């Protein structure tokens, strides 16, 4: 594909979508200030019926910023957020940014060892943590720079009636309580988020706002090596990706209701359900986790107009809605990401809603969206779509990324645009491996092999990197392998992803038994893995091989292993 300003994909854009967007001149926080000024009484956040208007949200952010400032958080400091989706997550996110500090998002279900690496690497000084994740953070804390841990009671964000119902001496109330709350050690010096905010005054009006070039976010990603690295995203990266998104969708300010069932700690959910949603002054209906019944109940109470998600979410909602008597026809647009969108899923969703479901593509390193299918009859399910406004792409020889391949040939996808990150946190060598200067532009090597079809549509055909995408989450084989090799019954292991139904891919461990071991059960492997790995990374299938296929230099050939697993059909 040519990489000059001809941009042959522009004629395939939906009507009204511009070729370029204006570079941002304001930080991400300006979107919240503008929404509060222009739409003060509009509901900003709805959590199971507990509503917060934009005016209220802005006030709460100022108080939270003052509280964090009182804990010593200053410009450039990193603040870890270890939270599920909730109103407090929204408040904490914008409060950290308001101070010119840096948000570091973490999965609240991570183990202590996973959190330890990221907390140590980022140098976070304060962590705002869901009660249930506090023990893991405290276990990791001695090997980090954390000065202060603040516990968040998730139930405090609920409507009063639901909070009162949790106190009832019945099994259902206990289950809800156990799911939302957790014990916090009384002698660990952990502070309480609710008390801090109650005691805080507003941040002084003259407190400086962040600059557009200030770092806003460290988002950890495994990249191609499996070692989690912090992608450095500045205010300008997040702001321009939100602007590109609005140019793509055509959403008008103050008109949309966005369902936030994607986690905020994931780059996809953070952009579309948080920074983008606030840019367009949308009402964000928040779900701590995806639950079909909860989403359909919310649809009856506050109908969605825009739903970002992953294919399994759309499949399950489309299948359940008719039987539940739920009307989804208010949903005009939906964007799928994180894994390939099956054509059948798109067809089923559009039949139930009457709206459009299109695929988007990106990486944490692109803030995260770089391509999307047009929201028009020209959409093409099964493709990654077209480059976003102000975005260029090239398809190059994987062995020589300075050389473009011919039309219709497979090659590595390279992306250039204002949403492309500046590099990894304190990892210049890793940065140099993925960012390439060529023809006056900075290009990101995605590691994905694509082919460009007529109309400029990009189709994914393979991966150079061997990341497993399961349920929308990235699993890095080397991390799983490193832990499994420590299991006494296992001499060697290769972890691969194979087609896994609505998961996208499932994690499979191909093992070579240790000398003297006669067998090992999947349940034992999963129990061993659960000591250090997130639940979604646990192997779902186990295959025993006499030996692992290797290259001439001794590298395990994961692609060969993957094909062997598929051929066995177990």
CATH topology of one domain: Rossmann fold
- Report the major sheet: 7 strands, mixed
Q: State the helical fraction.
A: 25-40%
Q: Estimate the mean pLDDT confidence.
A: 93
Please work out how many helical segments DSSP would assign: 17
Tell me, briefly, the overall form: globular
Please name the CATH architecture of one domain.
Answer: 3-Layer(aba) Sandwich
The percentage of residues in β strands lies in 15-25%
Cα-based radius of gyration, to the nearest Å: 23 Å
Q: Which class best fits the helix and strand makeup?
A: alpha/beta
Distance between the termini: 40 Å
**Uncertain spans:** none
Number of strands: 27
CATH class group of one domain: Alpha Beta
For the largest sheet, list the strands in their spatial order.
7-6-5-3-4-8-9
Give an account of the 3D structure:
Residues 33-425 form the AMP-dependent synthetase/ligase domain. The protein has 570 residues and is α/β, with parallel strands linked by helices. Among the domains are: 56-210, Rossmann fold; 390-463, Luciferase, domain 3 (Roll), CATH 2.30.38; 470-568, GMP Synthetase, Chain A, domain 3. It has 17 helices and 27 strands. The strands form 6 sheets. Strands 7-6-5-3-4-8-9 form a 7-stranded mixed beta sheet, with helices on both faces. Strands 17, 18, 19, 20, 21 and 22 form a 6-stranded antiparallel beta sheet that branches. Strand 13 (333-336), helix 13 (343-353) and strand 14 (356-362) form a beta-alpha-beta unit. The chain starts with 28 loop residues before the first helix and ends with a helix. The model has no long low-confidence stretch (mean pLDDT 93).
């Amino acid at each position: 594909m040519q990489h000059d300003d001809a941009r042959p994909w522009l004629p395939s854009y939906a009507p009204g979508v511009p070729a370029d967007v204006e570079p941002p001149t304001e930080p991400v926080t300006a979107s919240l200030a503008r929404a509060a000024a222009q739409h003060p009484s509009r509901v900003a956040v709805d959590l199971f019926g507990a509503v917060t208007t934009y005016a209220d949200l802005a006030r709460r952010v100022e108080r939270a910023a003052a509280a964090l400032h009182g804990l010593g958080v200053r410009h450039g400091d990193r603040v870890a957020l270890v939270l599920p989706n909730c109103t407090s997550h929204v408040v904490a996110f914008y409060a950290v940014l308001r101070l010119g500090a840096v948000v570091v998002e973490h999965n609240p279900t991570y183990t202590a060892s996973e959190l330890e690496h990221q907390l140590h690497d980022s140098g976070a000084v304060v962590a705002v943590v869901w009660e249930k994740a506090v023990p893991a953070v405290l276990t990791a804390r001695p090997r980090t720079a954390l000065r202060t841990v603040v516990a968040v009671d998730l139930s405090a964000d609920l409507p009063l009636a639901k909070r009162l119902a949790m106190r009832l001496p019945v099994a259902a109330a206990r289950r809800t309580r156990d799911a939302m709350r957790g014990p916090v050690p009384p002698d660990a010096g952990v502070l309480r988020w609710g008390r801090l905010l109650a005691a805080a005054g507003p941040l002084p009006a003259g407190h400086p706002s962040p600059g557009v070039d200030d770092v806003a976010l460290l988002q950890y990603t495994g990249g191609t090596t499996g070692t989690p690295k912090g992608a450095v995203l500045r205010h300008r990266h997040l702001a321009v990706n939100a602007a590109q998104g609005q140019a793509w969708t055509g959403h008008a300010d103050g008109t949309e209701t966005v369902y936030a069932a994607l986690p905020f700690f994931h780059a996809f959910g953070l952009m579309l359900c948080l920074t983008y949603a606030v840019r367009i002054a949308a009402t964000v209906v928040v779900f701590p986790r995806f639950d079909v019944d909860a989403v359909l109940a919310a649809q009856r109470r506050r109908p969605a107009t825009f739903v970002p998600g992953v294919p399994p979410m759309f499949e399950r909602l489309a299948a359940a809605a008719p039987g539940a008597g739920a009307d989804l026809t208010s949903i005009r647009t939906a964007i799928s990401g994180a894994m390939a969108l099956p054509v059948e899923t798109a067809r089923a969703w559009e039949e139930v809603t009457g709206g459009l479901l299109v695929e988007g593509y990106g990486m944490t390193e692109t803030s995260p969206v770089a391509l999307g299918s047009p929201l028009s009859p020209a959409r093409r399910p099964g493709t990654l779509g077209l480059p976003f406004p102000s975005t260029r792409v090239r398809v190059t020889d994987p062995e020589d990324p300075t050389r473009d391949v011919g039309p219709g040939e497979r090659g590595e996808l390279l992306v250039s645009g204002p949403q492309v990150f500046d590099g990894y946190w304190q990892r210049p060598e890793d940065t140099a491996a993925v960012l390439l200067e060529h023809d006056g532009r900075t290009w990101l090597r995605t590691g994905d092999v694509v082919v460009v079809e007529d109309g400029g549509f990009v189709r994914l055909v393979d991966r150079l990197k061997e990341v497993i995408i399961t349920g929308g989450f990235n699993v890095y084989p080397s991390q799983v392998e490193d832990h499994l090799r420590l299991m006494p019954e296992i001499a060697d292991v290769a972890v691969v992803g194979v087609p896994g139904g609505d998961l996208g891919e499932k994690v499979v461990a191909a093992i070579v038994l240790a000398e003297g071991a006669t067998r090992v059960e999947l349940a034992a492997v999963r129990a061993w893995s659960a000591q250090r790995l997130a639940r979604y990374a646990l192997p779902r299938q186990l295959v025993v091989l006499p030996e692992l296929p290797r290259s001439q230099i001794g590298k395990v050939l994961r692609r060969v292993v993957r094909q062997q697993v598929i051929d066995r059909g177990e």
